[in-house]
Write a sequence for this structure.
């Protein structure tokens, strides 16, 4: 049974206009030293700095489907096939991640430095447009206008190279894999130019997910499936506190003192983004 605050946050994420998501593996020991199955922690964010970590016992495609339901907004993710069934429903729009794509070309520099460097320079030009939008403090419509004026010529150069180099490069070479990473979700990679609400990469979700990766490194595994769900609850709260600029320790101490007498109908007041300490 989930805590009311957890359920409140789970209700808020699906249906958000933009949801960045990512996942990381975590071992779940079920009492057997010989068998340690792998579960996954997935993270979902909304625009209001709500974070949800969701634990699934395997990297099943049902995980995103069960969590997101009939969401019809933008979903930004990596190229994980588990999201395909969700996008196949036709309601949500896929937004891919330029950071993932650029990273593949960075890794290809050792074996094909000239072509990898060309792709990295063009990807850097795309990010210069994004940097300008941030520096000038543009709003949603202004960001869209800037992108649609300056990004398409850069994207056309990138697409020309993909079409030219793709047939000439071994598919399993580092550059071939980088080209495949860029060619597969090409429409999703370019979708961020359609709306100033969107980001060109999924870095925020990756940064939040590092808390789960750090916990995996320190703890090695969760005790069992229930332990995975409990870990997800703690990660949700800590990550939300961090995004809201709140000291997690102060938040936990205050909320634990108040939770037994706090009215259930006002549970949203105890979410990190709404929380106000009961004492100075």
């Amino acid at each position: 049974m989930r805590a009311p605050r957890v359920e409140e946050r789970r209700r808020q994420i699906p249906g958000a206009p933009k949801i960045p998501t990512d996942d990381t593996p975590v071992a779940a020991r079920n009492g057997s030293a010989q068998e340690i199955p792998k579960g996954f922690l997935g993270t979902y964010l909304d625009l209001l700095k709500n974070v949800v970590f969701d634990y699934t016992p395997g990297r099943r495609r049902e995980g995103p489907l069960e969590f997101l339901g009939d969401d019809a907004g933008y979903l930004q993710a990596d190229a994980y096939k588990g999201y395909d069934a969700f996008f196949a429903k036709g309601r949500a729009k896929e937004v891919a991640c330029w950071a993932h794509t650029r990273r593949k070309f960075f890794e290809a520099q050792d074996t094909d430095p000239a072509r990898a460097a060309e792709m990295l320079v063009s990807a850097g030009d795309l990010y210069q447009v994004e940097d300008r939008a941030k520096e000038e403090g543009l709003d949603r419509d202004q960001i869209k206008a800037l992108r649609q004026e300056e990004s398409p010529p850069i994207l056309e150069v990138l697409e020309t190279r993909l079409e030219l180099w793709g047939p000439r490069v071994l598919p399993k070479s580092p550059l071939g894999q980088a080209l495949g990473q860029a060619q597969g979700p090409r429409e999703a990679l370019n979708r961020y130019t359609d709306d100033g609400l969107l980001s060109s990469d999924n870095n925020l979700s990756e940064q939040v997910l590092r808390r789960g990766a750090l916990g995996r490194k320190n703890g090695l595994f969760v005790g069992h499936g229930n332990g995975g769900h409990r870990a997800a609850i703690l990660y949700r709260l800590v990550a939300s506190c961090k995004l809201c600029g709140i000291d997690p320790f102060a938040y936990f101490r205050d909320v634990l003192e108040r939770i037994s007498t706090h009215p259930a109908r006002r549970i949203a007041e105890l979410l990190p983004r709404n929380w106000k300490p009961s004492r100075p």
